[in-house]
Amino acid sequence: MKCSELNKLEKLGGLKPIAGEKGLNREIRWIYFADSLESVQSICSPENWIDGNELYVLTHSGILNDVKTVVQLMRSANNAKAAGFVIDEMYIKPEYKECADSLGMPLFELPRSIRSIDLSQVVCTAIIEEKNAEISIEKLFIQLLHSDDLSEESAVGSAEMYGISLDQGFRVALFETTDFEEFLKRHKIVDRGRITQIMKQYLRKVRESFESACDMKIMSATENNSIIALLPTKELTAERIAGIIHRFKNENVLYSDISFNVSVGCAYSSVGSIKRSYSEARRIRRLAGIIGNEDGVLFFEDAGLYMLIFSSDNTDYMRSYLNRMLGKLMDYDKGGNTELTKTLEVYIESNGNGTETAEKLFIHRNTLHYRIEKIEQLTGYDLNSYETLSNLIMAFKIKKYFEQ
């Protein structure tokens, strides 16, 4: 539930934001009544009492009349990722508005017509209902991705109950963290609940990014530290999807040191094909680094010839091809501690440009000339042959595939 939705709830129509409107998209996870002595005493360490995304409520005159304390509490709560503040209308101070605006943290004025108990019950009930709906939608989505028993009619009907239309074309996008374990180590995060919360926060951000772009609810889920989203193709072309992903990756408002690679399956018109699009997204997720996709977003249809090879389950054939094309060089390098394989790879990547290859390898042109002659001698390859180079390019792609 977002802060912007508060005054849309029954009995809360009089609850209006009076400052910090830039933060109205902040998520509310729960309500925290900060009128107790422990709240004031924990100003410098609010993380001891909250987990993030709580809506602070202040009604105690003894606290609200202490401007310095309240402003300090607002700042520390904001640092702990609080959702916003609700303050009794009798005690609103200009300093509180100024602080909320400077932080971009929503500040709501609580009128006397709304009782604190109503605020608590209405908001908490709405949050619970929303969470239950999200859980049900996620479970349905997981079924669509993995189950063979769910009928299309049943899936469409279940989705409609939550305001999601499956009567259109879709494709599946898979967001996979590239350095999540390192992120957890850097921040010393070991609690499974906290890890789950982080992924759920990212899930909401991904979902909100696409829902805002297509103006409709979409299905999404987390699975094995990855995020999966079902994207409508009518509202979201491949170009728009790529643009949204790029913006999300660049803005990354949660943690700047978590990065994602995104793989996207093909578009299909039936619910039964959602599973196929997901399978395609999973199959190409390892190819971004192999193909040289710099922005970390790869569509199945763009994988071209590589996908024809890597979609094969015959890894024995792939290894055989790799050994046939590069086996002699790799064995020679192991036996003599040389770098002929690496030299050939860089030479091909440099389009046969000797100067560029030598510079990348930090060697003299004469040394490169010797190595190229040695490579041709060992393999019998003509490195001026287009067919030979094409086969070698594919061999190096397969080599990277198995090294990942």
Give a description of the structure.
- Belongs to the CdaR family.
- Helices cover 52% and strands 12% of the residues.
- The chain has 404 residues and is α/β, with parallel strands linked by helices.
- The protein folds into three domains: 3-114, HprK N-terminal domain-like (Udp-n-acetylmuramoylalanyl-d-glutamate--2,6- Diaminopimelate Ligase, Chain: A, domain 1); 163-310, Reverse transcriptase/Diguanylate cyclase domain (Alpha-Beta Plaits, 2-Layer Sandwich), CATH 3.30.70.270; 315-403, Orthogonal Bundle (Arc Repressor Mutant, subunit A).
- It is elongated and about 90 Å long.
- It starts with 15 loop residues before the first strand and ends with a helix.
What is the helix fraction of residues, given as a range? 40-55%
Report the radius of gyration as a whole number of Å. 28 Å
Please list the strands of the largest sheet in the order they lie side by side.
1-5-4-3-2
**Helix and strand composition category:** alpha/beta
Taking the sheet with the most strands, its summary is: 5 strands, mixed
Protein name: Helix-turn-helix domain-containing protein
Domain CdaR GGDEF-like: 151-286
Organism: Candidatus Ornithomonoglobus merdipullorum
Family: Belongs to the CdaR family.
